[in-house]
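Weekly structure sync, notes
Attendees: PL (lead), two postdocs, one rotation student
Agenda item 3: pending single-chain targets
PL asked that the sequence for the first pending target be pasted directly into the notes so everyone works from the same version. It is reproduced below exactly as submitted, 256 residues in total.
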Amino acid sequence: MSGISVIVLRAAGTNCDAETAYAFRKAGAETDLVHINRLADGDASLDDYQILAIPGGFTYGDDISAGKILASELLHRVGDQLRRFVDSDRLVIGICNGFQVLVKMGLLPGWEPRQEHVTLTNNDSNRFEDRWINLSIASTKSAFLRENDVIYLPIAHGEGKFVVDSQATLDRLEQGNQVVLKYCSREGAEGCYPINPNGSMGSVAGICDTTGRVFGLMPHPERYVERHHHPRWTREDTPEEGDGLRFFRNSVNYFS
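Predicted structure, written out during the meeting:
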């Protein structure tokens, strides 16, 4: 083990916490599954961890909008802990529902406190999209990314369309290298549905804050860390490690 401790946050409706914890353990970290109530009641503290992971799922049934209730709960119940964590040299990852939480808290893109310049809304297809997609790593600004190539990961969401409040916001994200993942073809080219499975503006699949330490993405890296997670692992010569493992390993290596 690396000595790096990860807190994987849970709430009602979270359903990817065990997979996320497994991925971090495989990358060499120690992990704890912690319910939001334990943080709010003082039974656990973010101060004891180097990485905060907010995994996928449908927290509180995604009532109101996806991730909104958990975002409000974090701000109002553990806001001081969270601000202290983010302001220190520590890492935050939000996957799928966790990404929705981060943008609805205003932690992403992280320009002004609690300001929502971006959000994630209903897919253009008006249905839940559950498929494997290709992604280009558009920037290595995020501490979770170190390689510029095309990778293969699954998605599973109904509200994954990335939208911005203005073209100026998208330009600012691009110019600041904060757009770190984009939906693409196998050859790396952008395109329409199903290459861009939800209609995201700019084909954006993941962004980071200005420091590179807070990262959110809609695809699920924790669902492809082993060879046999690949949908065609019995028919193709797939690598021993899944493309998703690099996200977790890079974050652990960040502290070394």
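Discussion points:
- Helices lie at 17-26, 36-41, 68-77, 79-87, 97-105, 167-175, 245-253.
- The first strand starts at residue 5 and ends at 10.
Action: rotation student to compare against the earlier draft before next sync.
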